[in-house]
Structure formats: C-alpha cells, structure tokens
C-alpha cells in the first residue's frame, strides 16, 4: 500500500515555502508533500471571503483522492478555519461509503484554529481583533505584516538571520477570510492531531488548548496531541 500524501496549507500571510523544511523532513522518510498556496494570501487582488480558499483546498484534495491517494491535511494557524470548512465529504471513511478511493485520512492542526460551525473571526469591516503582527488597511481590504512585530511574534525562537529571512517572505493577507462564517467542522468527522508549539506568541498554547477542549466538549472525534518546536525542522 502506498504511503499517504501530505497536503500542507500555510497560515495567514505565510507563503508555501514556510513548509519546505517540513517537506524535506517528510521526504527523508519516504513521504510526498503538496504545498498549497491559498488565493487569499498575497492579496492581489484581495479575495472577498474564504470561498476561493475553500475551492482550492477541495479541488486539490479531490484530485489527490480520485487518483487513489490517502491524504493527510496539515493546516497551520488560521488555515485551520478553512481546512475545517473545506473537507466536507472528503474524509476517507465518507468516500469509502460512497465507493470512492482515497480521501482525507487525518487532519493535522499546527497551532491551528479549531472552530465550530457558525464561527466568524469578526464582523465584516471589523479589524479590532486583528493579529498583532498584521497592519490592516480597509481601503485595500488587506493586512500587511509589520517586520519588527512579525520577527518577535512568529519567529522569536530562531536565530536573528533566520528570523529575518522568514519575515521577509511573508505576504499581504486578504481580510475577507477573517470575516467569513463557517458552516462545517471537519474535525467532527475526520481523525485529527493537534501539534502544540510551546513558544508560539501569536496563538498562545493556553488558548490553543482552550479551543481543543471546547471542540472535545462538543463532539470532536478521535484526537491526538503532540508538542513540537517547528523551528527545529
């Protein structure tokens, strides 16, 4: 039996190259990884909401699954919202019940947002709760990473030269994804793993544990917890 393929989805304002170290590590163990850049990242033109992101995820998963592959979806940060919404009907068990090959075997959240149906980050036009490292602009409907804040918030456990490099790679983020409302929670139906990064300053480990506990309390399926420091890849 062939090994599952990893589909890696970066978080808000992050380019796909953020996953290159992980892709290289997976390759050493014989696994393949597909890195998916979401349309909302780059902000040119900005997307209205997360609809285009959902389509990108669904189309990629469907293509991989229809080719007979099992898929492990890895969602970092805010992309957990989109991954949780996009995978309806694409789980391995769900596809098997319809006589289809392949499907999502597991959903992995790396300090990702695990949210219930009906979640909305903020009402449209509200940027008061924006991530601290992003500067929102309602004229362009994008948020731009602030270099100094990005370095200290996202890459504080890296050497300065390495942190500065990754900071320079970040992209503007369309604001619409923060204003979108979810209607589905894939973690209820697909076995999930949560990777907790102890030095994360954007989503604190305590807050991440609260999100996961709330999900467990309202019917989260199989879940495993792991602790990691991604700067060690």
UniProtKB/TrEMBL annotation:
Cross-referenced Gene3D superfamilies: alpha/beta hydrolase
Top-level taxon: Eukaryota
Stretches of the chain forming a coiled coil according to its record: none
Pfam families per UniProt: Abhydrolase_6 (PF12697)
Domain annotation AB hydrolase-1: ranges: 7-213
PANTHER family reported in the protein's UniProt record: AB HYDROLASE-1 DOMAIN-CONTAINING PROTEIN-RELATED, ESTERASE_LIPASE_THIOESTERASE DOMAIN-CONTAINING PROTEIN
Name recorded for this polypeptide: AB hydrolase-1 domain-containing protein
Organism annotation: Hymenoscyphus albidus
